[in-house]
Specification:
Chain A is built from eight helices and 19 strands. Chain A is α+β, with helices and mostly antiparallel strands. The two termini of chain A are 41 Å apart. Chain B is built from four helices and nine strands. In chain B, a hairpin with a 4-residue loop joins strand 1 and strand 2. The chains are: A alpha+beta, B alpha+beta. Chains A and B meet through helix 7 of A and strand 4 and strand 6 of B.
């Protein structure tokens, strides 16, 4: 079975920049340019530019659009004001996760929804089957490109290319304006734990925008960043990755996403009844972060064991060597009895249990000098 | 194009072998380190341990991937490049000299005959694409 991989409008730009291209969620994407570690460090210390055009953009408009989203999503969509964005989870009836996504309110009953690349078709079908008369739902994913400019220097670099004043745009807010002469949505959102912006533009303008940003950032340490560092950056923050940490077998409460689940909001929503039952019963497992006490890197799919009895008590969902901290970090689901910070656990690495300990997350905290800004 | 020095022997699992008197020195090839990307973690056996031809005896990891290191010969470990464990990125920088992994006393020298010459390994990489 061969599947044709899709390419973003920046594919040739990445090739020319020497990127290593890999298949990801049905796309040919840059995994790295110079290397995961220097790219990761550039984002933490200066700025990085990511092509995230593989992500999906849906337009939801018309009378009833807000109520439609509010009935499909766990967060209180009615609280979002014009120019604001909100992180959300979309659930199946049994409270497992269809996708995690961000909604952007562009006006009364006018929304942009950005979803994960690998879930575009599935999400669209799920929403389409539930869209009421009067609400337009359109998959605009191929028409849009999405660039993420992240890092302590991101705002300074972007400001040099736009008349839109960036300082008043708070975290999880956005403005519509122009960047380097191109119409864009400038959203103060990201997936790195740094201040930064995600810029949505017409797909055919992305190469020119990429060039303009790279030129504007050249003297400020801006580097192009691939999916490799995107993963290490998000994991240092314990941001969930769909397909690794959350999927259609996990619920948002055990995944630590209870902060975006508003069981008390006015509207009922898909999955609410199941979630209430789960909550009443108590969580059987939780997604926790842990440090290795013994040598080894815990990886996706490795078993988590009781350190004494060696009984299986969970599973690792993401793990890597943290470039910022220079030590292994990982997250995984463990039986609730082992979820408290300080709990001793073991990870089965190549057939051998190795000790680990549940820790506070995020793993990485920004230095106080860079406080403020995104997430 | 990755480097493939002459006078070394190679395995299809991308290890190199260098004869040093009675011993062989083992490492991973330039091609292997390029494929892996920045190496952030390394596990090697201890001195005195036995390794078996075509069995995994160590592990190298990048931020993204885990890769076994296979023994190109059967024998006993007589020396380990222990310093590499804390600075595994040296394998990326110099896979054939500073980045050597272990020295092994080979049980049966016949093991070496099955390994590839530098030309055969270059052809093998081409076939692999």
């Amino acid at each position: 079975m061969t599947e044709t991989l899709k390419r973003t409008s920046l594919f040739e730009t990445h090739k020319a920049a020497g990127a290593r291209i890999v298949p990801f969620a049905g796309w040919e994407m840059p995994v790295q340019y110079e290397g995961v570690i220097p790219e990761h460090k550039a984002v933490r210390s200066a700025a990085g530019l990511f092509d995230v055009s593989h992500m999906g953009e849906f337009i939801v408009e018309g009378a009833g659009a807000t109520a439609f989203l509010d009935g499909l999503l766990t967060n209180d969509v009615t609280k979002v004001v014009d120019g604001q964005a909100q992180y959300n989870v979309m659930l199946y009836d049994n409270a497992t996760i269809v996708d995690d996504l961000i909604v952007y309110k562009r006006g009364a009953e006018k929304w942009l929804v950005i979803v994960n690349a690998g879930n575009i078709d599935k999400d669209f079908a799920w929403m389409k089957a539930r869209v009421p008369a009067g609400v337009t739902l359109r998959n605009d994913s191929d028409a849009w490109a999405l660039l993420a400019l992240q890092g302590p220097k991101a705002a300074e670099i972007l400001q040099s290319l736009t008349k839109t004043e960036l300082a008043p745009i708070k975290t999880y807010h956005f403005a519509e304006g122009e960047v380097a002469g191109m119409k864009a949505i400038l959203a103060r959102t990201g997936y790195t734990g740094e201040d930064g912006f995600e810029l949505a533009v017409a797909a055919n303008e992305a190469p020119a925008l990429w060039r303009a940003l790279m030129e504007a950032g050249a003297s400020k340490g801006l580097k192009p960043v691939g999916l490799g560092a995107r993963d290490t950056l998000r994991l240092e923050m314990k941001y969930a990755l769909y397909g690794n940490d959350i999927d259609d077998t996990t619920n948002p409460l055990e995944a630590g996403l209870g902060w975006v689940v508003k069981l008390g909001k006015a509207a009922t929503f898909v999955g609410k009844t199941a979630l209430e039952a789960i909550k009443a019963k108590g969580l059987t497992r939780k997604l926790v972060g842990f440090d290795m006490t013994e040598r080894g890197i815990a990886r996706h799919g490795y078993k988590i064991l009781d350190p004494k009895t060696k009984a299986e008590i969970g599973i690792v969902t993401s793990g890597t060597q943290s470039p910022s901290l220079d030590r292994p970090i990982a997250v995984g689901y463990v039986n609730s009895a082992y979820a408290a910070v300080g709990s001793e656990i073991a990870v089965e690495i190549r057939g051998e249990p190795r000790l680990a300990k549940v820790v506070e997350t995020p793993f990485y905290n920004r230095p106080p000098s860079q406080a403020g800004g995104s997430q | 194009m990755s480097k493939i020095p002459e006078k070394l022997k190679y395995s299809k699992e991308h290890e190199w072998v260098r004869l040093e008197g009675d011993l062989v020195v083992i490492g991973i090839t330039d091609h292997a380190q390029e494929k892996l990307g920045e190496i952030v973690y390394l596990e090697l056996p201890a001195k005195g341990e036995k390794i078996d031809k075509e069995e995994a005896f160590g592990v190298v990891e990048s931020t993204k991937a885990v890769s076994d290191i296979y023994a190109p010969v059967t024998g006993e470990i007589v020396e380990v490049n222990t310093g590499l464990v804390t600075t595994p990125e040296r394998i990326n920088k110099d896979p054939y000299e500073d980045g050597w992994l272990v020295k092994v006393k080979v049980t049966d020298k016949k093991d070496l005959e099955g390994l590839l010459s530098e030309k055969e390994y270059a052809d093998f990489l081409k076939e692999e694409g």
